[in-house]
Amino acid sequence: MAINSNADQPDNNADNYSNKNADNNGQPVFLILGDSLSAGYGVAREKNWVSLLQQRFNSKKLNLRIVNASISGDTTGNGLVRLPAALDEHRPAWLLIELGANDGLRGLPLSLLRSNLKKLILLGQRSQAQVLLMAIRIPPNYGKKYTQRFNALYTELAQETGVTLLPFMLNNIALYPELMQADRLHPTEQAQKIIMENIWEEIKGIVAAP
Hints:
Layout: E1 29-34, H1 36-39, H2 49-59, E2 65-68, H3 76-90, E3 94-98, H4 101-105, H5 110-126, E4 130-134, H6 144-161, E5 164-166, H7 189-207
Parallel strand pairs: 1-2, 1-3, 3-4, 4-5
């Protein structure tokens, strides 16, 4: 679901976030709970799309701090174990959930994936964070039916829970070998800026809203 907004140059006004959660320093937090795609597997930390997004926040004078709670190899089950403590510690105003690829690559039951993702969403909502769910796509390793049901699950969950659905970050990237690492699963350093720009276009109307 695209976010349509022209709010590309918001004012640096702390009052914009007065009704949102904030960390102990009063700074609104954008928490990312993800796997290797957000942890920056194979890419220097400062070149990862998450670091580039923080730079974009800074350049737009958005008083937001990104906390990247992403770990390579994580499943939705791992995320469920880690998220409560991250919410308690950081009290994020926004929570981006980017998980499920490793569940799918391991062929885990889709009923478990759906249950875990919904629990993650509800945890974020109960903490008063605005939750964003990133769609995930996987190769057809386990057949067409599994892959189609996997892909549809994210749209269904977003509609059911009312969260914002972001397009998969590797859309229009995974098809280009020069933008993917040798494993064909992780984006290269060259792709990180493209990913950041795409995500920024989706979220700018949310993070800049009063």
